Amino acid sequence: MSAPLTCEHPRPVVQVIGRGRVGKALVANLRAAGLAMSEPLGRGATGEGADVVLLAVPDAAIADAAAMIGPGPMVGHLSGATTLEPLHGHRAFSLHPVMTITGAETDFAGAPAAVAGVGDEEIAMAEHIAHLMAMETFRVADDDRVAYHAACSMASNFVVTLEGLATEMAKSAGVQRRMLAPLARAAIENWVEKGAAAALTGPIARGDDAVVLRQREAVAARLPEGLETFDALARSTRRLACSREIARDAGMEGEGPHAGGTHGG
C-alpha cells in the first residue's frame, strides 16, 4: 500500500488510465513536468504501485474504472460535469482542464483547471498535479458541477454553433468565413477584458430596431432553420443591452479602450 501523500511529496508516482487523447496528453504533460510516466493503461488497471491514479475515461466509465482500483492511491477523474460520487470509497479528487484537448501534443501550460476533493489533502494533490503542468486552478463544489460544465459548453460549443450559422448567412451573400473572423475575435477579447454587457455592440445595443427587423427578414428568407436561434439570441441581447443601460444610469458601467465601439455594425 502506498504511503499517504501530502504536498511535501513533489514527485508522486502517477498512473493514467485511459488511452484516448486526454490520457495521452496527460502523460505527455506530466512527463514534461519531470514525472516518470508510463504510457496510459487500459481500463481494468488496478493502480498497483501508484500514489495517484488519474482516470481519463468517458464519464459513464468512471465508476467501473474506479471500482478496479485497489486501496491506497488517491484516485482522480478528469470530467467536468461529474461529481466525486463515482469515486466513492477512494481518496477522491477531480481535475478538469478548461481547454480543448486534441491529442498528446496539447500543452496544458497556462490553462485553467477546476479542482475538487473529498478533503483538504485530496484537493491539495489535485492542485499540486495541475501546478506541475503550469495550470491555474480554481475550485468547484459538487453541487455546482453541472452548472459549471454548462457554462463551459456555452462558452465553447455554442459559440462554434453560432459562428456556423453566421458562416451560412455570409455564404448566402458571397462572403467568406474568414472575413468575419476579426469581429469574432474582437468580441471574445472585449468580453474577456470588460464583461458581456460592456462588450456589446451592434444594432440591438444602439436600439436600431429597424435594422434588426431587416436582418430578421433576411435570415427568414435565406436561412430559415436559423430563425429560431436568431430570435432567441436577439431577445437575450436586448436583455443584455438593457442591463448595460441600467448600469450606465447608475454610473456603474466600466470604461475601457473599446467603450462605445461599433464592432458588429
From TrEMBL:
Q: Where is the DUF2520 domain?
A: 112-237
InterPro entries hit by this protein = 6-PGluconate_DH-like_C_sf (IPR008927), DUF2520 (IPR018931), NAD(P)-bd_dom_sf (IPR036291), TM1727-like_C_sf (IPR037108)
> Source organism's superkingdom?
Bacteria
Q: Which Pfam families match?
A: DUF2520
Q: Which SUPFAM superfamilies match?
A: 6-phosphogluconate dehydrogenase C-terminal domain-like, NAD(P)-binding Rossmann-fold domains
Q: Which PANTHER family does the record match to this protein?
A: CONSERVED HYPOTHETICAL ALANINE AND LEUCINE RICH PROTEIN
Name-wise, this protein is Putative short-subunit dehydrogenase-like oxidoreductase (DUF2520 family)
